[in-house]
Design brief:
single chain; 75 residues; rod-shaped; YjiS-like domain-containing protein; YjiS-like
Length: 75
């Protein structure tokens, strides 16, 4: 009887193990897409700053342009 219980419970645990990688992959994808969206948004905002604002944060126009022109998927 204990063998039957172990077999039954192991199939439940097996199903849980099979679902975890899918959930993990979805979480990672969500995190990556969120990071990409944030990079895109902040680089767009950086490109819209005037010289006074850039000077205020200690960034030159050339540095801002270089950073803003980078693709969002590059860190």
């Amino acid at each position: 009887m204990s063998r039957m219980t172990q077999t039954g419970s192991s199939s439940v645990y097996g199903a849980a193990r099979r679902q975890r990688p899918t959930v993990s992959v979805l979480k990672r994808l969500t995190t990556v897409f969120g990071l990409w969206a944030m990079r895109r948004r902040t680089r767009k905002h950086l490109s819209e700053l005037d010289d006074f604002m850039l000077d205020d944060i200690g960034v030159t126009h050339a540095q801002a342009h270089k950073e803003a022109s980078r693709p969002f998927w590059k860190g």
